[in-house]
Amino acid sequence: MSAKQFTARAGANIALVKYWGKRNARLNLPAAGSLSITLANLETTTTVVRNPALRSDELVLNGRSQDAGRVTGVLDLMRVRAGRDGFCRVESHNSFPTAAGLASSASGFAALVVAAAAAFDLTLSPARLSELARRGSGSAARSIFGGFVEMSAGEREDGSDAVARPLLEAAGWPLEVVVAVTDSSPKAVDSRRGMNHTMATSPYYPAWVDGVAADVDVARKAVAGRDFESLAEVSEYSALKMHASMLAARPGLIYWNGATLSCMHAVRELRAAGTGVFFTIDAGPQIKAVCLPGQGRQVAAKLRSIDGVQRVLTSSLGQGARLVPET
Ligand code: PMV
């Protein structure tokens, strides 16, 4: 009899108040909280099957075999929790470019823990799934939930309180997201290395970390009150402060290209002219424009017209990570 397989799906998420820096590298504990939105149209679908014949875990990402090291790290935690051994074959597909600043690790690890929990017959609360996803990638803790999500830095040494929680479901404030892809090749410095380098060398890093909790408070209130202006202001502030800390590292990390900057100016011009839109940027050159309901189409047309923008993806807000029926 062939082994039973389990498939889960999770959306990428975009932080509006950013996570950049750790208080514990081994447990992947964030130095501060963060706040994000989960996307419906940028998804990872992951199938996990336990196979006693395997001598190590196998990872196939978008049809190609990959090093399974980070996946094995998370699966080991699940094997310990379940009190079961057995290696797994993990097959994962992204509906968007991998490793290009579009947070594929977030949706990837969130889908992985949900599918693997089922494969190991573990019943885990969303908070425990979030904790496990965090061990794969800090931002993945947030993709367990849909809509608007807050990640807590936590205080405990074991990291059990460094988990995400849902703030508002997607339908509660159906913002739209436009992603302008300005370079779809894998980034030169991934977020893990970029974060470590910023922590070790940037004189602005302590100031960055000190301000995050206050920014999360403002953003949480803006979400609760559907205050777009306040959310726009604090989100751009957080993204630019994070990039300032990276730019001040030694040597400085420059994730932007010319088109990234042109898009930032275009978004600000649109907002000054009355369109409900703001930008955010992660550890890559893509621009994520967050728009009031109904304004995404106009923003997408504008960003598409900018020199250097290769393509534009649009998304609504989506649900959290979930199992999908096997076909
Ligand atoms: O989850 P990681 O380790 O890939 O780090 C994510 C870092 C940013 O995307 C730049 C910010 C964030 O909060 O998602």
Mean pLDDT: 95
Summing up helix and strand content along with how strands pair, one would put the structural category as alpha+beta
Bound molecules: (3R)-3-hydroxy-3-methyl-5-(phosphonooxy)pentanoic acid
- The DSSP helix count reads 8
What about the largest sheet?
8 strands, mixed
The residue fraction in helices comes out at 25-40%
Q: How many whole angstroms does the radius of gyration measure?
A: 19 Å
What separation lies between the terminal Cα atoms? 17 Å
Silhouette? globular
Total DSSP E strands: 14
SSE string? EEEEEEHEHHEEEHHHHEEHEE
| Oligomeric form | single chain
Structural write-up:
The protein is of the alpha+beta class and 327 residues long. 35% of the residues lie in helices and 25% in strands. The chain is built from eight helices and 14 strands. The protein has helices at 69-82, 104-119, 126-136, 191-201, 205-224, 228-247, 258-272, 296-304; strands at 5-17, 22-24, 29-30, 34-50, 58-61, 64-66, 88-94, 148-151, 164-168, 176-181, 277-280, 287-291, 311-316, 322-324. The strands form three sheets. Strands 1, 4, 5, 6, 7, 8, 9 and 14 form an eight-stranded mixed beta sheet that branches. The protein has a four-stranded antiparallel beta sheet with strand order 11-12-10-13. A hairpin with a 4-residue loop joins strand 2 (22-24) and strand 3. Helix 5 (205-224) packs antiparallel against helix 6. It is globular, with a radius of gyration of 19 Å. The two termini are 17 Å apart. 51% of the residues are buried.
